[in-house]
Amino acid sequence: MKVDIVGDIHGCYQELMDLLMKLGYQWSEGNIYHPRQPTACICRRFSR
Q1: Count: domains in the chain
Q2: Is 26 domain-assigned?
């Protein structure tokens, strides 16, 4: 199984979308997917 791990995306929505598109991810009906089934793991830190 292929897993793409992305972290520390604070305030970088457009950069994240650009990266996911470069990795081959696509949008369909409001969901992002990869035609060859890799999994994206978006890590973010929750602060209080």
Answers
A1: 1
A2: yes
Residue 7 lies in a domain: yes
Q: What is the mean pLDDT of residues 22-36?
A: 84
User: Residue 40: CB partners within 8 Å, gap ≥ 6?
Assistant: 3, 4, 6, 20, 23, 25, 32, 34
Backbone angles phi, psi at 41, to 5 degrees: -115, 105
Q: What is the pLDDT of residue 38?
A: 64
The pLDDT confidence band at residue 46, using thresholds 50, 70 and 90, is very low
Domain presence at residue 48: no
CA–CA distance, 9 with 11 (Å, rounded to integer)? 6
